[in-house]
Amino acid sequence: MNPGVRFLINYAVPIIFIILVAFAIPLSGLSGEYFIRELTIRLSRNSFLILALLIPVMAGMGMNFGIVLGAMAGEIGLVFITDWRIIGMPGMLLAMLISTPIAVLLGYFAGIILNRAKGREMVTGFMLAFFMNGIYQLFVLYGMGNIIPISNSSILLPRGYGIRNSISLLGIRQVLDKLIPLKIGDILIPVATFLVIATLCVFIIWFRKTKLGQDMRTVGQDNEVARVSGINVERTRVLSIVISTVLACYGQILFLQNIGTMNTYQSHEQVGVFAIAALLVGGASVAKANIPNVFIGVILFHTMFVVSPRAGKALMGQAQLGEYFRVFVSYGVIAFSLALYAWRKRVEKENERKKIMNYRKSILVK
Amino acid sequence: MKKKIQNIIENFGLPRIIIFLFLVLLFILTPFVGIRFDTSINDVIVRFGMNGILVLSLIPMVKTGCGLNFGLQLGIIAGILGAVTSIEMNTTGFTGFFTAIGIAFFFAIVFGFLYGLLLNKVKGDEMVVATYVGFSSVSFMSIMWLMLPFKSPNMIWAYGGSGLRTTINTKGYWFHVLTDFLQIKIGHYIIFPTGTILFFALLTFLVWAFFRTKIGAAMIVVGSNADYANSCGVNVDKMRSISVILSTVIAAIGIIVYQESFGFIQLYTAPLFMAFPAVAALLLGGATVGKASIKNVIIGVFLFQSILTMTPSVVSNIIKSDMSETIRIILSNGMIVYALTRITRVRT
Asked: How many structural domains does chain A have?
C-alpha cells in the first residue's frame, strides 16, 4: 500500500476531527481566553481517566469499557466521605483509600470475566459495565441506609434509604486543583492536578519497562508465544485490568473533585464512552495507544465539546442540535475506529493466508 | 443421577434455571401479596405481542453467524420513519398501519443493505461494531428528527417550533388496530389481543418457512461453517447480507407493532438501548451467540416479559419500593454477559 494512503487510513479519525474543529471554532464565535480556560479545565479533568485505558491496550485487550467499574468504586468512596463529613485534602485521600479495595475487587472480577471471553473483550466489557451498573444501583439505591448505615440524612432519599440523585461534593470541591495556586491572567492553572497526571505518565513509561510491563506487551502480541515463554497469560491479563480499574477509580475522583457535584446514578455511565472516544480521536487504535494520543485526543475531542453547542446554534438556531451532534460524534468515532480496525485486521489476516498458500504452492512446484 | 443433574444444568444454563425458579416463586407469591393472577397473565400476553417480533428479528443474523444483532436500532429507526411518514400522510386504521409497514420496509432494505456491507468487512468483530453503529445512528437520527420537514400538527412541537416531539401518539391513526382485531374477552380482566398474536404467528411462520427454502438452507450452512459453505459454492457475503437485511426489515415491522400496541412512537434517545432487552430475551430462551431458533424466541419472550411484569408488582408489594428498573438492568445485561463468556466452548 502507498505510504501516503496508509497514513490517511491510520489517522483518518484525527484528520477528520481537525477539519471539523477548524470549521466549528470560527462558527462558535468564542473568545480565545474562554477557550483556553475551558481546555485547561478539561485537560486536568479528563486526562487521568483516559490514561487509565492505556495498560489494557498494551496487554492486547483493546479498549477497556470496564473503566466504568472503577468509576463506580470511586463514587462509592465519595459517598462515604460525604456521609462522614470529612472535607478537604484528607477527605479526598480517604475516598481514594476506601475505594481502592473495591476497585481491585471489581477489576479482578472483570479480568476473570474477560478471560472467559477472549477475542470479544470489548463487547463483553461493555455489557459488563451495564450489568455492574445494575448491581451498583442495587447497592447504592437500596442497600445504603438499609444494610449499610448512612448517618447523614441530607444525602439520603426522603424515604429513608438510598442515596439521592445528586450529592454535593462541596467539601472536596477543587481541593487538588487549588492546592498549588497559580493564575496566569484570569486563567486558574490546576498545577497540582497536572503534577498528578504527569506522575501517572511517568509511572506508565516506567511500567512498560518492568518485567510485568514487558510480559503484558508479549501477551498483547501473541497469547501463544507468551505462554510458551513461560508467562502466565491469564494472570497478566487480569492484572492489566485491575491496574486500569484502580486508575479509573482515582481518575473519577479527580474528575468529580473538579466538578463539585456527583450525579450518583449517571456520573459514571458515560465515562467509558467519552474516554475511549477521546483516545481514538487522539490517533490511537484498538491495538496501539500511547501517551501523546491521550493529550491530542483530549484537546481535539473536548474542543469539539466546547464549540459544538454554540456552532449548532449559529448554524441551525438550535443549541439542542449541537448537543445531539456531540453525542453522535462520540459514538460515531468509536464505531468508525472499531470498524476500521476490524476491517484492517481481516485484510491482514487474508494477506497472510494468501502468502502461506503461495509458499505452499511454490514448494509443490519444486 | 448426579451426573444427570449436572448435564441438565450444563445444557439449560444455571442463570436460566435461577430465573425460571424466580419466576415460579413470583407466580406462587401473587395471591399472598394481593395481586390478581389474571391481570398479570393479561399483561404478560400483551407484552408478548408487543415485543415478540423484535426478538424474532434477531434470528436471521444469528443463523448466518453474524452474532447477536446489537445494531437492532437500525431496523427500529426504519420502523419509526415509516410510522411518522404514515401519520404525516394522515392515513388511519389498517391502511395507516400497512402504509407505515410499507414505507418502513423500503427504509429497512436500504439500511440493511448498507449495514450488511459494513458487517461483511468486519467479520469476527460484528457485535462490538454493531453496538456502536446502532448508537451512532440513533444519535444521528436525533438530529434528523429535529430537522426533517414534517408538518403534521400532531407530531411537531406545539409552541410553533420545528422538529418532532419526543413521543407521538398513535391514537386516531392506527392505535390498537391489530390488538382490537378479533379481540377475545375472557372474564373481566383478560383481553386477548388476537390480532397481535396472529400477526406474530404469521411472521414466525414466514421466518420458519424461509429457512426451509434453498436460500435459507444455504444461510444455515454459512452460519455453521463459512469455509465449508464457500467451498460448496455458496456466496458467503451475499448470504450474510440477505440475513442482515431480513433482520432489519423484521425489526422495522416489530417496532411498528410495538407502537401500535403501546400507543406511542418514541423518538430521539428512546431507541438507544432497545437492542439489549431483545437480545437478553432471546438468550433467556436458550439461544447462544451462534445458535438460535424460533423456540428460543417464544420461550424467551414469555419468560423475560413475565419477569418484567411480575417483579414490579410482586416485589414492590413486599418491600414497598419499585425495584423493577434495577432488576431489569441486572437481568438483561447479566444474561448477555453470561452468553458472551460461554461462546468459545460452543464454537471450538
From this structure: 1
Phi/psi of residue A62, nearest 5 degrees: 75, -160
Domain total for chain B? 1
A350 in a structural domain: no
Q: How far is B187 from chain A (nearest CA, A)?
A: 38
Q: Which of A120, A139, A318 to mutate against chain B (most B CBs within 10 Å)? A: A120
What pLDDT sits at residue B343? 60
Chain centroid, CA A316 distance in Å: 32
What are residue A184's DSSP bridge partners?
A187
Q: For residue B264, list its beta bridge partners.
A: B169
Collapsed DSSP state (helix, strand, coil) of residue B250: helix
**What is residue A50's predicted lDDT score, i.e. its pLDDT?**
94
- For the beta carbon of residue A209, count every other beta carbon within 10 angstroms: 8
Query: Chain A partners of B128 at a C-beta cutoff of 8 Å?
Result: 120, 122-123, 126, 338
Distance of CA B318 to the CA centre of its chain: 31
CA pair distance A78, A91, nearest whole angstrom? 8
- The answer on pLDDT for B148 being more than 80 is yes
Nearest CA distance, A225 vs chain B (angstrom)? 20
In a domain, residue B28? The reply is: no
Spatial contact of A319 and A308, defined as CB atoms under 8 Å apart: no
Structural domain includes residue B247:
yes
DSSP sequence for B27-79: HHHGGGGT--HHHHHHHHHHHHHHHHHHHHTTHHHHHTT--S-TTTHHHHHHH
Contact with chain A for residue B343, Cβ under 8 A: yes
Residue B288 lies in a domain: yes
Q: How far is A338 from chain B (nearest CA, A)?
A: 6
Residue A312: inside a domain, yes or no? no
pLDDT bucket at B202, cuts 50 / 70 / 90: very high
B157: pLDDT strictly greater than 50: yes
CATH code, domain carrying A189:
1.10.3470
The answer to whether A119 contacts B124, with C-beta atoms less than 8 Å apart, is yes
Cell 405481542, residue located? B49
Has residue B6 been placed in a domain?
Answer: no
Determine, yes or no, domain membership for A142. Answer: yes
- Compute the average pLDDT of residues A137-160: 85
Instruction: Report the alpha-carbon distance of residue B163 to residue B260 in Å, rounded.
Output: 22
Query: Is the minimum CB–CB distance between A170 and chain B shorter than 8 Å?
Result: no
CB B168 within 8 A of CB B153: no
| Distance in angstroms (rounded) separating the CA atoms of residues B246 and B240 | 10
| Rounded (5°) CA angle B194-B198-B199 | 120
Residue in B252, B277, B256, B262 with CA at minimum distance from that of residue B328: B277
Q: What is the pLDDT of residues B97-127, one digit of tens each?
A: 899 999 999 999 999 999 999 999 888 888 8
Q: Which residues of B touch A126 (CB under 8 A)?
A: 128, 131
On whether the CB atoms of residues A226 and A60 are closer than 8 A, the answer is no
CB B120 within 8 A of CB B240: yes
Range of the domain at B258: 16-23+35-347
What is the domain extent for residue A224? Answer: 41-301
